């Protein structure tokens, strides 16, 4: 839409900003998860980051986007159902 309305230059700038922000968010999420894994398993953050990144890449490559969507759906159901189960205990 931006390219059509404001021209190719603005569209390319917006695309670059989006890529930068999306990659930054992914890197922050990966680092945050690897800090937790490194703490629990008493390994260096470098190794936990590499392990999590490689696992996510292989999982997405083998399962495709469909596999990722199914996993996210199941995790979402669990996250929503768990408080209800815990309140019943």
Please sum up the structure shown:
One of its GO terms (biological process) is sodium ion transport. This protein is mainly α and 89 residues long.
Describe the structure.
The chain has 89 residues and is mainly alpha-helical. The chain has helices spanning 2-6, 8-41, 45-88. Helix 2 (8-41) crosses helix 3.
Looking at this protein, list some descriptive labels.
89 residues, 93% helix, 3 helices, 0% strand, mainly alpha, single chain
Largest sheet: number of strands, sense, barrel closure: none
- Described by its quaternary structure, the protein is single chain
Q: Work out the count of structural domains.
A: 1
- Measured distance between first and last alpha carbons: 51 Å
